[in-house]
């Protein structure tokens, strides 16, 4: 494999074709909650129900997921791009982004946004730490559906996260 050369431009173009949603990942540790916008999310198993999410190694939430062993995924409605923008911008303190978004704690103690379509809470069952993101595998333990409507998709936002 020593002669293999990666075409970086082709790699970028092709990886950006992978369709993504836009979610707010919620985390909690002790009395503290935090949330961030995540698009590298997919389902990984029917039974048990698993989700897979890649999280930046240097983010606040990465350590909180590792230490607490849980995370949730809030599913945004198609018209909630503004809310997604709040959750990737710098914040005053850990959890400060929730000042703009009311939430309640779900059965696993994770922040479920009142205005999202709903959320699933997961316990951490596996992870791969290799590269600049950690790939977390979570088993879905609770699901809260507030309303059923089309979800926000990354392609509709004009933002890029990938390549
Ligand atoms: C469109 C978009 C998608 C994103 N998707 C992810 C993602 O899947 N995983 C991730 O770790 N960060 C993702 N980010 C970046 C995080 O939202 C950002 O690093 C955030 O500040 C992390 O918050 P924290 O440090 O409080 O945990 C995305 C950003 C944007 C703009």
TrEMBL record:
Residues 15-161 form the Flavin reductase like domain. Keywords: Oxidoreductase. It comes from the Bacteria. SMART domains: Flavin_Reduct. This is Flavin reductase family protein. It comes from Cyanobium gracile UHCC 0281.
